């Protein structure tokens, strides 16, 4: 079976995320945290943009945003350039909850990483740095509005 680096990477990252989420209890679940992270990255995005990025329907995203809004994790505001447009932003409470989830998920994986030798940990640090750079380059190509 021929596997690509990209396919292996996506699969491993997804498994690590599920493993971390399974090991800890956080104030918000995995799916809401994922959507909250999307909103955090897409500062002041429209529901339609969020739906496109999350590969779901606009009504589904609108419902999910409403749940996050009811929990005080996101807020809606009117676009200054077009009063018909509603923009979604993460609130301080949402940012704090997302930070908690990320810390908890990281702590859930830390014992596994500590078992690695120094060379393997350095390899992972280097890989994470490269992946951050790839994501930053992609984000720079993608307009937020």
Number of domains: 1
Task: Tell me the CATH topology.
Answer: Arc Repressor Mutant, subunit A
Proportion of strand residues: 5-15%
Q: What's the total number of strands?
A: 2
Topology:
Layout: H1 5-23, H2 30-41, H3 47-54, H4 58-70, E1 74-78, E2 86-90, H5 92-114, H6 118-141
Antiparallel strand pairs: 1-2
Helix pairs in contact: 1-5, 2-5, 3-4
Descriptive account of the structure:
The mean pLDDT is 91. Strand 1 (74-78) and strand 2 form a beta hairpin. Helices cover 68% and strands 7% of the residues. It has one domain: Winged helix-like DNA-binding domain superfamily/Winged helix DNA-binding domain (Arc Repressor Mutant, subunit A). The chain is built from six helices and two strands; from the N terminus they run ααααββαα. The chain has helices spanning 5-23, 30-41, 47-54, 58-70, 92-114, 118-141; strands at 74-78, 86-90. It has a two-stranded antiparallel ribbon. With 145 residues, the protein is mainly alpha-helical.
């Amino acid at each position: 079976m021929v596997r690509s680096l990209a396919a292996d990477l996506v699969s491993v990252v997804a498994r690590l995320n599920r493993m971390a989420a399974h090991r800890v209890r956080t104030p918000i679940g995995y799916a809401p945290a994922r959507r909250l992270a999307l909103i955090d990255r897409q500062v002041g995005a429209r529901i339609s943009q969020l739906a496109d990025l999350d590969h779901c329907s606009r009504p589904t995203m609108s419902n999910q945003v409403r749940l996050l809004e009811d929990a005080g994790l996101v807020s809606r505001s009117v676009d200054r350039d077009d009063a018909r447009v509603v923009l979604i932003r993460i609130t301080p409470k949402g940012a704090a909850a997302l930070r908690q989830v990320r810390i908890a998920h990281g702590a859930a994986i830390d014992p596994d990483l500590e078992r690695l030798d120094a060379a393997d940990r350095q390899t992972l640090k280097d890989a994470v740095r490269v992946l951050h750079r790839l994501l930053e380059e992609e984000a720079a190509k993608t307009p937020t509005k």
